[in-house]
Amino acid sequence: MGRVRGGVRTGRVRGGVRTGRVRGVVLTVLGAALVGCGVQPTGVIEAGESASGLTRGMRLYYASDTGLRAVPVLDRGLTSLDAVMKLLSQGPTDAERREGLTTLLHAPGGYNVTGDGAHVTVELEGPYWAEARDQVTGQLVCTLASFQSVREAEVRADDVEVTIRPGEGPVLGPLRCAEFLDG
Q1: Which of 58, 74, 102, 110 is the most exposed place for a label (fewest CB within 10 A)?
Q2: DSSP character string of 86-118
Q3: Which residues pair with 124 in a beta bridge?
């Protein structure tokens, strides 16, 4: 506290000039310490092209009002493409349905799905019930491409071609998932 002269207090009080100087010195020292912590500014670092294409990992593709949507498959232990097609035809979970997802695919009476490298073939005993460029075909193609790329790690889902060979009617494909996705 300062002295009192003639009823007027003199000297420095809390928050005055001296305290301001001390704060300034402390902040300068802290600032210098932080700047010297070893992080140096860098220029532009070239990292190549931005990421594109399908997401890696097992995903089921369901239909929605806005197009196909991928849903990650966790803890299902699927080992064959036939099992994947069966799972897709069972449709989304209740929670996924509440989000507006559905399946348009209904498993045919008899089918066999095989994959070799970037090629997947769906052989049907009967006719194929959908068109080559509709959402149900997109569900099938994108889901099978996703699982094939997980089964064979050197294959990208973008590169997988799916061919549908019905027992009756024309062969569809080869088809790629990108043909069915917006963007």
Answers
A1: 74
A2: HHHHH---HHHHHTT-B------SSEEEEEETT
A3: 111
DSSP H/E element including 69:
strand 67-72
Yes or no: say if 101 and 85 are a contact pair by the CB < 8 Å rule. Answer: no
Residue 125 has pLDDT above 60, yes or no: yes
3-state secondary structure of 43: coil
Give whole-number Cα distances, 124 to 32, 46, 101, 104, 166, in Å: 72, 48, 25, 17, 5
Provide the β-strand partners of residue 172: 164
Mean of pLDDT over the chain: 78
Where does the pLDDT of residue 131 fall: very low under 50, low under 70, confident under 90, or very high at 90 and above?
Answer: confident
Distance CA 87, CA 74 (A): 13
**Structure tokens of 167?**
């027992």
Beta-sheet pairing, 111-116 with 161-165: unpaired
The residue written with tokens 């000297």 in the block is 11
Cβ(127)–Cβ(168) under 8 Å?
A: yes
Give pLDDT, residue 24: 65
Q: Which amino acid is at 91?
A: G
For residue 173, how many other CB atoms are within 10 A of its CB?
18
